Amino acid sequence: xxxxxxxxxxxxxxxxxxxxxxxxxxxxxxxxxxxxxxxxxxxxxxxxxxxxxxxxxxxxxxxxxxxxxxxxxxxxxxxxxxxxxxxxxxxxxxxxxxxxxxxxxxxxxxxxxxxxxxxxxxxxxxxxxxxxxxxxxxxxxxxxxxxxxxxxxxxxxxxxxxxxxxxxxxxxxxxxxxxxxxxxxxxxxxxxxxxxxxxxxxxxxxxxxxxxxxxxxxxxxxxxxxxxx
Length: 229
Description:
alpha+beta
């Protein structure tokens, strides 16, 4: 079963509140039921992002570290998974900015970084690179907001029933049907643990800890693989 697109999700929920379907998500009337539902769908994605580390949100980029001691995270960054110094073939260990600053108050330690911290919109390194190194940055991203008719959620298919029930709860509350709103929310809360359990199974099969060393830097390492269907 394929995921419904933005238009399909909106029309599905419009039907459940006995409203007419729409043909184009870019021409919705402000304040209409369809407009509210379109906003609720994107709100639901943001709510679900907080609930779990969904496997379809794992992404990566390759980027140069620069020589400033900090590096801007990706624009869609949510949380870090793995940061690899490809130049020196070492995994960077995630630590705390406080520890880096307390250990090097003058910020004058230089050399290839061995630790990093996610600090707002930046990564901070424990040392300041004297030469830029190539980094592979693997992280959980934020789901992209839906806008076009054919857009589909970055969240996995297992989240679609959750999106629908969360939006139903919101729109039924808006139209004054508190009973159906509460029932939809209860169903959301019933489905959520099942979806999270399934997601964890897949994440566990993607993130494998083995005994293979990586250039003698660690005795064990984490590597990312394509999920097994």
